[in-house]
What we know:
By secondary structure, the protein is an all-beta fold. The protein contains no helices and 9 strands. Helix content is 0%, strand content 56%.
Amino acid sequence: ASFDPYFSPSGLSYSTCASGVVEIASPIDFNFFPNPVSAILNIESKKNAELNSYRVCDFTGRVILEGKFNGAVSHASIDVAALPRGFYCTEVKTSDGILVKKISKQ
């Protein structure tokens, strides 16, 4: 697994999934919905942290989608309609740190 050089996991716990994807249990409080998703994945900060950028990777680690959110927003959407069915790893960089979440695309 590759880690972002700007991210420090001190004080956080993480677990490696059977697929090799690391999910970090973090104090960053976000909702990813709906999950499973068919078209639009919504991301919402419960504590108004600013969403900066995102990456959606398949379980081989290949980046499928990536982009930046417009402005200082605490709620945003990612269009995943073109992705084939399957499981993906979504990484979101915020003003509070990095959040990694598994999503299921229907």
